[in-house]
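Reminder to self: keep the SMILES exactly as supplied, no canonicalising. Ligand is zinc ion.
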Amino acid sequence: MDAGRVSKKRGVRTCVACGASESKIAFARIVRRPDGTAAYDPTGREAGRGAYVCGPGCLAKARKSDKLGRALRCALKDSDYERIASEMEASASDRPSE
Ligand SMILES: [Zn+2]
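Structure tokens returned for the bound complex:
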């Protein structure tokens, strides 16, 4: 067996704010696009470095200590966090509850 590997399960992601680990579908993905801007990625498939949060609450937590910026290795401004938060909210209200 491959005991040296960290991940036992495929598709498990970790929230950058609270450290919770869940399967990928439970998380909101933030992607750093090739032009260096960060954006909410509702499909979870956009190319680029990704970071995950549980939802708007953890996004707000990540903003306080700029964990998202560190995870994505790019500088995120307040306006970036605000844009991502509103994109996340718009997408959440758009979707039937699961
Ligand atoms: Zn979280």
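Points to follow up:
The mean pLDDT is 86.
The radius of gyration is 14 Å.
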